[in-house]
């Protein structure tokens, strides 16, 4: 029986996902394949490296550090989350990403990015064991989480990519195509949440004027997202998948400077995972 894990993004709503996956790891729940989008990729990779508490720890420690995220970084580098710090100094020097465990873990791990020229989702399997700072896999993780307008496109093999959530916010169908018999989806919005049309599209189109197709998919992203939410609900009602999600909006900023808020959302994830643990185990074993 093949088991899959899907992790939605949502910037610092991803602290909810961190709480969920920590409970999963503490209880020895494993999967054969996982896919993360944006924050679901950057935080979710710790499930494969088996590092309980790591993303909560470094986010709380560095959330006020302008080297991590700041408008100063946005103005001076083009990235609100500083690339050198977030994808170099932090994971390879300050709070080490355990790449040995990551690459020895047999679970397949995919991240989703959006091709800025085609507007299509690209699914990258992180299995390049020679990865180093700015190596292929960490570049794909970065691309997956590079929010439009406040991030530069990430160039990989002469192609450019941005946040995977623009093209595939909840990649359940991708995971179903991996022939998984059981799938856990971790969402970061409540069950009946409906995304509204993007505000300030004039600003988006100006910022992405070199990539008009990217701007086009952002303009209609709410339609894609709401269809995916409905599909998740339908598959859940049919008993085909298991979903853990917040009961109410998490109400946390995309760039959160309050460590207590990060802890609050993380704890909500832990609570939902703990409350659903017995049912999840039964689903996975059935």
Brief summary:
The protein has helices at about 15-25, 40, 45-50, 55-60, 70-75, 85-95, 100-105, 135-145, 170-175, 200-205, 210-220, 220-235, 260-285; strands at about 5, 35, 110-115, 120-125, 155, 160-165, 180-185, 240-245. The protein is an alpha/beta fold.
Explain what this protein looks like in three dimensions:
- The protein has 286 residues and is of the alpha/beta class.
- The chain has a single domain, classed as Cytosolic phospholipase A2 catalytic domain (3-Layer(aba) Sandwich).
- It is 45% helix and 14% strand.
- Strands 1, 2, 3, 4, 5, 6, 7 and 8 form an 8-stranded mixed sheet that branches.
- Strand 3 and strand 4 (121-125) form a beta hairpin.
- It is globular, with a radius of gyration of 18 Å.
- The relative contact order is 0.19.
CATH class: Alpha Beta
| Major pleated sheet | 8 strands, mixed
Tell me the number of strands. 8
Shape: globular
Helix % is: 40-55%
| Domain tally | 1
CATH fold field value: Cytosolic phospholipase A2 catalytic domain
SSE sequence, one letter per element: EHEHHHHHHEEHEEHEHHHEH
Q: Supply the number of helical segments.
A: 13
Unreliable segments (pLDDT under 50, ≥5 consecutive)?
A: none
What is the beta-strand fraction? 5-15%
Tell me, rounded to a whole number, the average pLDDT.
96
Kindly provide the radius of gyration, computed on alpha-carbon positions and rounded to a whole number of angstroms: 18 Å
Q: Could you name the CATH homologous superfamily? A: Cytosolic phospholipase A2 catalytic domain
Could you say which structural class the secondary elements and strand pairing correspond to? alpha/beta
What gap, in angstroms, lies between the N and C termini? 10 Å
């Amino acid at each position: 029986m093949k088991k899959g894990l899907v992790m939605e993004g949502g910037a610092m709503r991803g602290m909810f996902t961190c709480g969920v996956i920590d409970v999963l790891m503490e209880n020895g729940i494993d999967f054969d394949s996982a896919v993360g989008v944006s924050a679901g990729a950057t935080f979710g990779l710790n499930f494969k490296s088996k590092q309980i508490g790591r993303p909560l720890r470094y986010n709380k420690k560095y959330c006020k550090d302008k080297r991590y995220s700041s408008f100063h970084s946005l103005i001076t580098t083009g990235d609100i989350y500083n690339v050198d710090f977030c994808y170099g100094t932090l994971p390879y020097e300050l709070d080490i990403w355990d790449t040995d465990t990551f690459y020895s873990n047999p679970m397949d791990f995919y991240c989703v990015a959006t091709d800025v020229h085609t507007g299509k989702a690209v699914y990258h399997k992180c299995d390049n064991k020679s990865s180093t700072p700015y190596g292929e896999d960490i570049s794909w993780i970065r691309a997956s989480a590079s929010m439009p307008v406040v991030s530069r496109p990430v160039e990989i093999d002469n192609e450019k990519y941005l946040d995977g959530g623009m093209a595939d916010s909840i990649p359940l169908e991708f995971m179903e195509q991996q022939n998984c018999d059981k799938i856990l989806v971790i969402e970061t919005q409540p069950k009946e949440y409906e995304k509204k049309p993007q505000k300030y599209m004039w600003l988006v189109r100006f910022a992405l004027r070199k990539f008009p197709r990217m701007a086009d998919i952002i303009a209609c992203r709410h339609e894609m997202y709401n269809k995916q939410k409905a599909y998740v609900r339908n598959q859940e009602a049919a008993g085909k998948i298991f979903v853990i999600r917040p009961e109410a909006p998490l109400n946390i900023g995309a760039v959160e400077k309050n460590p207590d808020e990060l802890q609050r959302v993380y704890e909500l994830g832990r609570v939902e995972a703990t409350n659903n643990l017995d049912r999840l185990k039964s689903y996975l074993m059935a």
